[in-house]
């Protein structure tokens, strides 16, 4: 995906007198292993900025989490949006705790930021990293290389609906999916632009219009209309259930995918597992207009079962950090970071979810060492 521009348009990016770019990054570690991997991500980003010496990163941490919720009765202070709008990007860990219902934590923190900040494009790249193995037989690096574009502002997670007659035998609950022309068209255009930027120029539109005859038929209709503006992009359409089998049986036939909030949420988790582990999968929550900061997060969740044990895989956060740098306009730094990560996984330094025995800190140390080596080589070529 090559949609990055050198600066955001929210007025927060500063340029120092030497001409080098300086970026303000809000850190929201959240819960569980989110706290651990964001710390590792910060360390790697600082190492990268120091070694390359071409840009600066200014971090500020925020304690918004389930612990904050239990203390204050809410996940975010009243001025949270005003605070984060001062930053160029947000690096987010995870949210969720065993003693807080998931719908409260999700809507209280992550969605409470994504929706009002108009981060309507959720982008999840997936590929098999060097040195890792897919559970799919004979699937090698290069055979599975996808970008899943998820509509991130409405659809099944629009938040419309309610309950009545609670506690009665006739209690009712409704969950209303919302599909607006504005929302569907803008994510379709983003997905087509993403597909156009990739070598294969191929987009699969995922739907369920055989059963959901209103919202999904509308989704298909808008997709067909937008496709007319992208004659250079090859388009096909798949029902979401058939898409799951295609991902398993013919991964090489897929390139860029666009799907609704719910469908892409599920498909991207499957994609991560097929690539080797959900512990390597990144997410970008983007406001393509750049009027607001975008938020970047690993998709693995808070994983309280391994919290504090040094077992968390930091690779998803490193990949997420690379996507953040790319979005901010630092494509060379992003490429160097991913090269360092794959050199490390290829050398056998991997956490247990990837079949290795390394601890979180060991992976981070190895990536930092590799960054030093690659940056020195890059500087010698200049």
TrEMBL record:
<dbReference type="InterPro" id="IPR011829">
    <property type="entry name" value="TTC_DH"/>
</dbReference>
<dbReference type="GO" id="GO:0000287">
    <property type="term" value="F:magnesium ion binding"/>
</dbReference>
<keyword id="KW-0479">Metal-binding</keyword>
<dbReference type="GO" id="GO:0046553">
    <property type="term" value="F:D-malate dehydrogenase (decarboxylating) (NAD+) activity"/>
</dbReference>
<dbReference type="GO" id="GO:0051287">
    <property type="term" value="F:NAD binding"/>
</dbReference>
<keyword id="KW-0560">Oxidoreductase</keyword>
<keyword id="KW-0460">Magnesium</keyword>
<dbReference type="Pfam" id="PF00180">
    <property type="entry name" value="Iso_dh"/>
</dbReference>
<protein>
    <recommendedName>
        <fullName>D-malate dehydrogenase (decarboxylating)</fullName>
        <ecNumber>1.1.1.83</ecNumber>
    </recommendedName>
</protein>
<dbReference type="InterPro" id="IPR019818">
    <property type="entry name" value="IsoCit/isopropylmalate_DH_CS"/>
</dbReference>
<comment type="similarity">
    <text>Belongs to the isocitrate and isopropylmalate dehydrogenases family.</text>
</comment>
<feature type="domain" description="Isopropylmalate dehydrogenase-like">
    <location>
        <begin position="24"/>
        <end position="367"/>
    </location>
</feature>
<keyword id="KW-0520">NAD</keyword>
<dbReference type="InterPro" id="IPR024084">
    <property type="entry name" value="IsoPropMal-DH-like_dom"/>
</dbReference>
<keyword id="KW-0464">Manganese</keyword>
<dbReference type="InterPro" id="IPR050501">
    <property type="entry name" value="ICDH/IPMDH"/>
</dbReference>
């Amino acid at each position: 995906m090559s949609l990055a521009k050198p600066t955001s348009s929210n007025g927060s990016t500063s340029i120092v007198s030497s001409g080098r770019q300086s970026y303000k990054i809000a850190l929201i570690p959240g819960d569980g292993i989110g706290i651990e991997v964001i710390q590792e991500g910060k360390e790697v980003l600082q190492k990268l900025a120091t070694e390359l010496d071409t840009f600066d990163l200014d971090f500020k941490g925020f304690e918004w989490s389930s612990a904050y919720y239990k203390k204050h009765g809410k996940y975010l202070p009243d001025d949270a949006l005003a605070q984060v709008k001062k930053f160029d990007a947000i690096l987010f860990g995870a949210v969720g705790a065993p003693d807080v219902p998931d719908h409260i934590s999700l809507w209280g923190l992550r969605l409470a930021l994504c929706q009002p900040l108009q981060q309507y494009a959720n982008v999840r790249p997936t590929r098999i990293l060097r040195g890792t193995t897919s559970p799919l037989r004979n699937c090698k690096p290069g055979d599975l290389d996808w970008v899943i574009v998820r509509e991130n502002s409405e659809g099944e997670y629009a938040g419309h609906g309610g309950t009545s007659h609670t506690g009665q035998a006739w209690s009712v609950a409704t969950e209303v999916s919302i599909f607006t022309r504005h929302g569907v068209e803008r994510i379709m255009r983003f997905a087509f632009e993403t597909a156009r930027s990739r070598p294969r120029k191929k987009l699969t539109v995922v739907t369920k219009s055989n059963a959901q005859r209103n919202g999904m038929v509308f989704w298909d209709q808008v997709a067909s209309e937008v496709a007319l503006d992208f004659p250079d992009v090859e388009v096909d359409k798949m029902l979401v259930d058939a898409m799951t089998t295609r991902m398993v049986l013919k991964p090489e036939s897929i390139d860029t995918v666009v799907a609704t909030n719910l469908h892409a949420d599920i498909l991207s988790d499957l994609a991560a597992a097929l690539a080797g582990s959900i512990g390597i999968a990144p997410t970008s929550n983007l406001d393509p207009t750049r009027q607001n900061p975008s938020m970047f997060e690993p998709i693995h969740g808070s994983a309280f079962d391994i919290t504090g044990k040094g077992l968390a895989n930091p690779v998803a956060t490193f990949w997420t950090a690379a996507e953040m740098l790319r979005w901010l306009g630092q494509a060379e730094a992003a490429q160097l970071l991913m090269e360092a990560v794959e050199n490390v996984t290829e050398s056998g330094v991997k956490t247990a979810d990837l079949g290795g025995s390394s601890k979180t800190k060991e992976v981070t140390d190895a990536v930092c060492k590799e960054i030093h080596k690659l940056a020195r080589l890059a500087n010698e070529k200049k």
